Amino acid sequence: MSMNFSEFKKLIGADPWNRDPGTLRARNSAPEFEAAAAEAEAFEEKLQSALHIQPPADLLEGIKGISREIESIQPAKQRSWMPLALAASLLIAVGAVGMVWKQSRQWDNVEAYLADHYSHDGDALVAQATDIVSEQDVVKIMTSLNASADTQLAGRIKFIKFCPTPEGRGAHMVVSTDQGPMTIIFMPKTQVTDGEFVNFDQMHAFLINLEHGSAAIIGKQSQAVESMEAVIRESLRTGLVGA
Amino acid sequence: MSSDKERTSRFNELAEAYSTDLYRYAMWICHNDALAKDLVQETFLRAWRALDSLKDVGAAKSWLITILRREYARTFERKVPKFTDVDKVVVVDNDELGPDERTERDFLRKGIMKLDPKYRDPLLLQVVFGHSCEEISEQLGISKSAVMTQLFRAREKLKTQLQKDGVTGNVHELF
User: Is A222 on the interface with B (CB under 8 A)?
Assistant: First the structure.
């Protein structure tokens, strides 16, 4: 049975490059079919041109860098696969080193603290942070710091852990942003110069005073770290109990 | 399991083959170049981690699209800014189109951005990735006839939008 014009237009409207025998036969059956097919193909070329946008020049290299970055942190992962006794002794050693590192730090100012702390494992944690962490993990850490993070922030957190701060314990987070991952350091008992930028190594940080304590948003120099200010101010609630 | 070198080589081949189309797809679904870049990088990060589970190289394109769509739905969709001016989000191409053709293309881009996702998604899979209707059906989990209807309607809507925008020329003559 031959195809009518309406059916034919629907077929080529769904797939202008349709070359199945029935469609080809219909196309060649009458001038109006032929013209409709040619017009559909002309429109398709315009559509392809419109959709054809150039990716950023550094996209491919950035993606290839993923494998290099992950490979560079593999040795740390492989240590966890070593025999139990070796792992235990390593753990003790690492713990001891960590405690020494933590206790030996007498930072003169927040800038020195951030540079020191970030150089310790900041980049490695950004590279490792791939999945959004569970809300439970966020709540557990935030609650123990007398704080909370609403979903606007919690939904972005790809890594969270306790960390030392100039005054007691705080939280080290890696968050997803529209400019790539950034690091947030929450310092529950430390005050900073609100709105100040701090530069160190290839990074910079934007400091925010919160109702209780403060936060530093850390990113690469190319990232507008201050763009996360509103999210942090709105979402990170501090001093929940006994404030 | 393949050696690290082979794994890296396999990953880089995927990146070279599909990163551009994935970026285009991401751009058209999230309308934000920085977010699209982030989304593609997240997609490849997940792909790297799960690379050993990809047994059939021929399925790589669909596999990557699935990862990207899931990642978008899971962590990006709710953060995407509202529709903004197409001129601000689409990279300006230095091609050789004349003024009229550029205008027509810009109108078309605006129309694509305004498309409902149910029409936009199959259209992008078809035009950007060259998926067949069967492949789109599998990718989106809808019937082939529904895919064909949505593709037809997507194009009709774009043509109607162009007509409303007053674009003349070949496209206008279609109506």
Answer: no
